[in-house]
Amino acid sequence: MEDKAIGRRDAAKAIGAATAGLAFAASIRAQAAPPGAGGIISVDAQGMTLGARTIPWPQSVSPQAQAALRAAAARPVPPFPDPAWRALVAQADSAMAAYIAPPDPAMPIVTGRLAGVTVYRARPAGLAAGDHRLYLDIHGGGLIFGGGAFCRAGAGREAALHGVEALAIDYRMPPDHLYPAALDDCFAVYRAEVQRRGAENIIVGGGSAGGYLTAALMLRARDAGLPMPRAALLMSPRVDMTEGGDTISTLMDIDPVLKGRLAATATLYADGHDLRHPYLSPLFGDLRGFPPTLLQSGTRDLYLSNTVRMHRALRQAGVEAELHVFEAMPHGRFFGGAPEDGELRRFVAAHWARAGEAGRG
Amino acid sequence: MADADGTHLPRRIVPWPRSVSAQAVAGLKASAAQPRMPMPDPADAQGWRAMIAQTDAGMAVAYAGPPDPAIVVETQEVAGVTVHRARPRTLSGNDRRLYIEVHGGALVFGAGDFCRACGARDAALFGVEVAAIDYRMPPDHPFPAALDDCLAVYAAEVAARGAGNIIVGGGSAGGNLAAALMLRAKAQGLPMPAALVLMSPEVDLTESGDSFEVLMGIDPVLKARLTESIALYAGGHALDDPLLSPLFGDLAGFPPSFLQSGTRDLFLSNTVRMHRGLLKAGASAELHIFEAMPHGGFFAGPEDEEKDRAVARFVAAHWPAG
User: What is the ipTM of this complex?
Assistant: First the structure.
C-alpha cells in the first residue's frame, strides 16, 4: 500500500517537473530564431537536434479554428500540486465546465443508475418509441477529470448530434477508484444495454481517455463472450498508456491542448498494473473481431501516433477501420464552432446511418 | 511559448522513434545523414540540367536495382509520349487491366531509368500491366508539358481498353500530376479511371499546409520547401491554379481514392487536406498514415512492406469484377 502511495506521489512530482520544463522552455524563447529557421543542426544516436524556431499559426484552416488554437495555447497549464489530486480534479473539472453547452429544454437529460453505475440518459423528443438505437458515450479527461457535469453534458451533445438516445457513463476514477474500476463500470453498463436492446443497436464512442476505455471495453466484452456493438468511434484515443508513439516527441509543444506527457495519470490510474496489458493499452491487444471503427485525429494532435498506430493495427487484424485526420487540429478537436467540427459531425452521422440500417426495427 | 506570431520552440532534440522497427529507424537515420542539396535558381537552366543529371543518376542507382526476371519492360511511344510498359510474364494475353504510374521526383527529377524501374516495381506489386509515363519536365518543358503528356497517354489508353480497366497512381510529384490529370480528364469529358492512388501527393504547390512548418526538420527526407523546383515547373503560371495545385480544384466526380502519408512526412497536410477535400466533394477516399514515416517511406523495413500491401489490397479491390 505504502509503495503505491509513494508511486502516486512520484507521479504527481513528475507532472510538476514537466510543468517546470515548460517554464524553462518559455524562459529561453528569447533565443528563438525567426520563422522558417530550425532545420536539422545535427544527427546522432539520440536523435535529430533542431534549431529554435517559430511555428506560425496555420493559414490553412478556418479563422475559427485558428482562434481555437490560439485560445488553447494561451490557457495556462494547470498546476499539479503534490499530492492534492482532488484539488486538481476539482480545478480541471470547473475549467472543463466552460465547454459545456447550456441545457437544451428539448433534450432533457435523466440521471440514473444502471448496473450500479451512474449514467446520464438523453433521448431526443419525437424519437419513435420503437427506436432502440443507443449511442454509448465514454467521456475523456485524462482518466481523472470530466466526471459529473462534463460527462452529463456529453449525453445531451451526442443525442443531439446523432439523433438517437445517448447514454453517458460516469465511470469511477482515481484517486479514489483505480484500475480496473473505470473499465468495470463501462463493462457493466454495456452488458446491461446489450441484454436490454441487443448489441446491434449500440454504437460506442469516446475521445482521449474515453477512446482508451472504448477500445479496452471491446477487448473486455469480447473476452467475456459478449457480442460487439454495431460500430466504435475512437477520437484521438489514448490507446498506449506507455506513451510510446513518435508524435509524443515530434508534436510536443506544437499541440496547444495537450501540453505535456500524461505519464503521471497513467501511473496513478494503473495502480501498479503493467501499462502494456491490453486492458490498459489496447493498442497492444489482439484486435481481431472489433466492430467497424472510425478513428479521428489532427496533424497537431499529440495523440496522432496513437491514432494512426491503432488504425493500422485494426486493419492488420482484419477490422474495417477508417481514419480521419484533420489539418492543424490539436487534441480534442477545435472545441466546437469551427467548420472542421461540422465535417466531423457529418462523417460521424454518416457512419451511424450506414451502421444503423440493419439494427433498426 | 505562443503569441500572435505563433508557437516558439527552443532548440530541441527529436529522439528516434521507439515505435517502429529497427530497420525503419536505420532508414530515418540514413535519410537524415544525407546533406541537403541546394537547388539552383529557377532562372539557371544550365545549373538545373547538371543538378537533374546528377540526381537522376543517384535515383537510378538507389531505386532501380537488378531487373526482375518475372517482369518484361518495353520502352515505347504512346500518343507521342515515352512510356515504359511493364508486364508480368505470367499474365494472360487478354488481361486488359492497366495501372498507369506517374513517377515522383519534385516535377523535375526521376525521368528515364527511375521511371522505368517504378513501372517494373508496380507490375510486380499489382500483378497487372503497367504504363509508366516518362513525361517531359523542366527546365526545357515547364507546365503544362508534363500534364499534357499524362493526358495524352490516359486518353489513348481509355480509347484502347476503357477507363474502367485503368487505375492511375503516383507519389509525391506523381501524386500532383495524377490528381491534376483527373481534373484535366474531367474537363475534356473523358471518363474517370476505376481508382486513384495518391502517395504523399504534392497537391498544393503554394505549400500552404501546416505540416510545412510543423514537420520541417522532422522529415529527414524532404528537408526543405520545394520553392525553386516549383517555380521552375510553374513557369510563371499561378501556383494556386487547380491544374498546378489540384487540392484547390473541384474534386467532384473523382474515382475512389487511396491516400498515404506518415507522421513525419512534410506532405502530411497535403495528404490529409486532399482526403478531406475528396470526402467533401462526395468522393470515396481512404486515408492511411504510417507511424514516424517520412516522405516516400523508410526505404527499408516491414513498415514499407505494409504500405505496399495496403496499396496492393486497395488496387486489387478496385478492378472490374470478372
Answer: 0.95
